[in-house]
Amino acid sequence: MNVPIWKTALIGFGKIGAGYADDPLMARYYPYATHAQVLQDCPNFDWTAVVDPSPSQRELARQRWQIEGVFPSIEELIQRDRPEVAIIATPPDARGEIIEKLPDLLGIVVEKPLGLTLEAGEKFLEQCRERNILVQVNLWRRGDKTFYQLAEGKLSELMGRLQGGFGVYGNGFYNNGTHVIDFIRMLFGEIARVRANGNWKPDRRLPIAGDANVPFTIWLNDGVSLDFCPLDFQHYREIGFDFWGDRGRLSILNEGLNLFFYPLSGNRAIRNAGEIAHDRPRKIESTVGQALYRMYENLAAALSERVPLYSSGESALQTAKVVEAVVRSAKTNGSVVEMSSF
Questions:
Q1: Hey, which end of the chain has fewer CB within 10 Å, N or C?
Q2: What local confidence, expressed as pLDDT, does residue 1 receive?
């Protein structure tokens, strides 16, 4: 059986592009922490080029990853190479220009956010739609095998109907709050309304300019609410979730490396009542280290067989609308914002 192969360029050679691959702690838990690691192993993508303005990063691509086609700009790339797939690991402000300069594109993998504003993200996706370019957005939890199985029905089998829940995140709402909201949409469906539980106070320490850490509440279409609290990552990192159903509780901790299910049990103090067996958790296998690789496998299948993308541009845009709704609420003294207004 012939394996379809697409000529591929990696545009942006920073931490998610390649840098995390040399972190020994990351390597213990995430065999695929960067785009470079996936491109080196995935047979569907012929990784022929790297574009980065930094001389040191281009030299890293040559020496560490053995890439011969290394260029400081898209203009120089297209004089030598015509990629069919582009991995765009750059800030969002110039992505539209990148797309325009690559005439043979069939698909892309792109980091979130889609644009610096919701309008810019919509414009970028319209550019891609006009040229029939498939857009896979690296909201990587959608590629994780275990999370995918939860979303496809295993979650309700485990814990029954969701009654409520909460979670924590940090390092910026635009940054990791986007991952939180997208994960909730993946597991439980669309969001009806949101409210910020604090004002928008930009923090210069955060990686995205103008970002803030803000607590917020979201309501699902069935009326169930979920609350989220920001953490200061200077103390420790966590993007964690705690979901309570009518048959048990699911905790997803250490950014997905530890998953525990606590089943329903008879109450030890009151007759004819139940409790959650917090002293008898069942650990669920974590597969987050393979999630990014699966995103690429899925893109390859979408290109060759037209299967649905795990994290399409259209889905990521809906997440961006929820993000914008929370920001709007935070800037209007915590008003409830209905998603029907977007």
A1: N
A2: 53
The amino acid that residue 167 corresponds to is G
Judge contact between 330 and 141, C-beta under 8 A: no
Beta pairing partners, 169? 230
pLDDT in tens, 273-308: 999 999 999 999 999 999 999 999 999 999 999 999
Tell me what the mean pLDDT of segment 104-131 comes to.
94
315 lies in a domain? no
pTM, full prediction = 0.95
**Residue type for 81, please?**
D
Please say whether the beta carbons of 237 and 230 come within 8 A. Answer: no
Note whether 36 and 91 are same-domain residues: yes
DSSP character at residue 175: I
> Is 100 in the same domain as 65?
yes
Contact assessment for residue 45 and residue 6, using Cβ atoms and an 8 Å cutoff: yes
pLDDT at 3 > cutoff 80? no
Residues 173 and 87 in one domain: no
Which residues span the domain enclosing 324? Answer: 142-289+320-337
The number of domains in the chain is 2
DSSP assignment of 316-337 equals: HHHHHHHHHHHHHHHTTTT--E
